[in-house]
């Protein structure tokens, strides 16, 4: 699992935004929903995204995330952990993909007792558009989001 200190230590100035014709930054998504059961990691991800001009919404598990998604049709991207209580990430991805097939999903995981790559491979197979292995830095997060917008 990613620690708050490792995320802070790896922060960068990379924007992860697309550029307009005149060179100014352009947000790719109206809003990003971050679903993560670890409050410190969830807040850190939101802080990184908000510093880059993204609007964020938060949920502590998949059940809460689905509820937030239904109330906010402006969400364009979901960043979801895989190992969570209530409704875990793979089940959440499957439900989102069924009800919101065009919505972009970035799955994140530190793996728990298994190798994180195995969970992330499953997430890709279940419909995640991209994956990131914890710990990751702000540059990796922002690049993944930027790449999803292409």
Short structural summary:
The protein is α/β, with parallel strands linked by helices. The protein contains six helices and seven strands, in the order H-E-E-E-H-E-H-E-H-E-H-E-H. The protein has a single domain (4-141), classed as Rossmann fold (3-Layer(aba) Sandwich).
Q: What would your notes on this structure say?
A:
The chain is of the alpha/beta class. The protein has one domain: Response regulator (Rossmann fold, 3-Layer(aba) Sandwich), CATH 3.40.50. Helices cover 41% and strands 21% of the residues. The chain contains six helices and seven strands; from the N terminus they run αβββαβαβαβαβα. It has helices spanning 4-9, 39-51, 62-71, 89-99, 116-126, 138-148, and strands spanning 18-19, 25-26, 31-35, 55-59, 75-81, 104-109, 130-133. The strands form two sheets. The chain has a five-stranded parallel β-sheet, sandwiched between helices. α2 (39-51) links the parallel β3 and β4. The protein is globular, with a radius of gyration of 14 Å. Mean pLDDT is 83; it is low at 1-26.
SSE order, as H and E?
Answer: HEEEHEHEHEHEH
CATH superfamily: Response regulator
In the CATH scheme, the class would be: Alpha Beta
CATH topology: Rossmann fold
Q: Into which percentage range does the β-strand content fall?
A: 15-25%
Q: Major sheet: order of its strands?
A: 4-3-5-6-7
Q: Find the count of extended strands (DSSP E, 2+ residues).
A: 7
Low-pLDDT stretches: 1-26
Shape: globular
As a percent range, the share of helical residues equals 40-55%
The number of helical runs is: 6
Under the CATH scheme, the architecture is: 3-Layer(aba) Sandwich
Helix/strand class: alpha/beta
Major beta-sheet overview: 5 strands, parallel
**What's the mean pLDDT score?**
83
